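quick q for whoever's on today - can somebody do inverse folding on this one?? i tried earlier but teh output was garbage lol. C-alpha cells:
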C-alpha cells in the first residue's frame, strides 16, 4: 500500500509539472531501444486571413549523444486537435540547428539580441548563406508522410567531440502558416499572391528583396508578400474567432553507439545555377521563382 501511494504521488507530481509549463512532453520506449517523445511548441495566434511567420528558438529536443530516427510535425489547436490544411495552410516548417555560446545565454535570453552568441549549423547540401539551411522541414505535404529511417541508419546529433568548446547545441523552428478561413481566394492566399493581401500603402517603397534592393513592382507573389501579421482579403461579411495554434512534433531516437550508421542531410535546389570563382563553386539557390509564361510555353513547344 505504501508503494502504491509513492507511485501515485510521483505520477501526480509529473502531471502538475507538465500542466504548469507551455510545453508538453510524452516519453516512450520500445523493445528495440528506440525512444520517442512528443513535444508541443509555444503557441502562436492566428485569425481569419492572417499570416503568421515565426521563429521559435530553443525548442524542446532530446538531450545527449543520439541518433534521430524520425521527426514528424503537425499543427494543432489549443485542445490538441489537428488543424486541417483548408483552414490553416502550413506553408513551411524548418527545423534548424544552431549552437549558442554558453557564457552569453543569459544575455541572449534577456535582450533577445541574437546577433552575437549563436552560430547556425546548416545541412551538408550545396546551398550557401541563409537559404535552405534546415535539416527536417517541409510544407503541408509533410503531414502524414513518414520520416522514419530504417535500421541501422540515424542522424547523429549531440556528439560532444563535434560541438565547439563553450557552446551548446540547440534547435529552432522557422514556420509560416496562413489562416485561410473566410479568404476571398483561398488558393491564391495560400500562394501569397500580393494582390490578395492587404499590403501597406508604402509596401513597394520600403520592402527590400533578397539582394538588398527595393522590391520590384513586378513582384506578383511570394514570401515577401506573406509577412507576419499581414492579412489576406476576406469575403464580405465574414467574421471568425482568433485562435492559438502550436506545432506538435514527435521525435524518435536511439542512444548513439557503434551499431548506428550516420546519415547526413543534403538539401538541394533543382534550379540551382552553379557558377564558379576559379575552383570555388558558387551556388544560386532560391526559395521561390518567377516564370515568364510566354517564354516557358515557347520552350515547351
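ok took a stab at it. sequence:
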Amino acid at each position: 500500500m505504501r508503494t502504491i501511494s509513492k507511485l501515485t504521488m510521483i505520477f501526480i507530481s509529473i502531471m502538475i509539472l507538465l500542466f504548469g509549463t507551455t510545453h508538453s512532453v510524452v516519453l516512450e520506449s520500445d523493445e528495440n531501444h528506440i525512444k520517442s517523445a512528443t513535444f508541443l511548441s509555444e503557441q502562436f495566434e492566428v485569425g481569419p486571413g492572417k499570416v503568421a511567420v515565426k521563429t521559435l528558438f530553443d525548442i524542446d529536443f532530446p538531450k545527449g549523444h543520439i541518433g534521430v530516427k524520425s521527426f514528424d510535425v503537425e499543427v494543432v489547436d489549443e485542445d490538441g486537435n489537428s488543424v486541417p490544411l483548408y483552414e490553416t495552410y502550413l506553408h513551411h516548417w524548418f527545423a534548424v540547428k544552431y549552437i549558442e555560446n554558453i557564457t552569453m545565454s543569459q544575455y541572449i535570453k534577456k535582450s533577445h539580441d541574437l546577433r552575437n552568441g549563436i552560430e547556425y549549423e546548416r545541412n551538408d547540401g550545396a546551398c550557401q548563406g541563409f537559404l535552405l539551411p534546415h535539416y527536417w522541414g517541409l510544407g503541408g505535404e509533410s503531414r502524414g508522410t513518414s520520416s522514419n529511417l530504417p535500421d541501422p541508419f540515424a542522424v547523429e546529433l549531440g556528439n560532444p567531440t563535434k560541438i565547439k568548446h563553450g557552446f551548446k547545441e540547440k534547435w529552432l523552428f522557422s514556420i509560416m502558416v496562413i489562416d485561410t478561413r473566410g479568404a476571398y481566394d483561398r488558393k491564391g492566399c495560400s500562394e501569397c499572391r500580393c494582390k490578395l493581401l492587404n499590403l501597406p500603402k508604402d509596401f513597394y517603397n520600403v520592402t527590400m528583396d533578397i539582394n538588398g534592393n527595393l522590391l520590384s513592382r513586378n513582384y506578383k507573389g511570394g514570401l515577401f508578400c506573406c509577412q507576419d501579421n499581414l492579412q489576406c482579403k476576406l469575403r464580405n461579411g465574414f467574421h471568425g474567432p482568433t485562435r492559438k495554434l502550436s506545432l506538435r512534433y514527435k521525435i524518435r531516437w536511439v542512444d548513439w553507439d557503434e551499431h548506428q550508421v550516420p546519415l547526413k542531410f543534403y538539401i538541394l535546389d533543382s534550379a540551382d545555377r552553379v557558377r564558379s570563382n576559379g575552383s570555388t563553386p558558387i551556388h544560386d539557390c532560391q526559395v521561390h521563382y518567377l516564370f515568364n509564361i510566354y517564354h516557358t510555353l515557347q520552350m515547351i513547344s
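fwiw The first strand starts at residue 25 and ends at 29. also Confidence is low (pLDDT under 50) at residues 1-22. so keep that in mind when u check it
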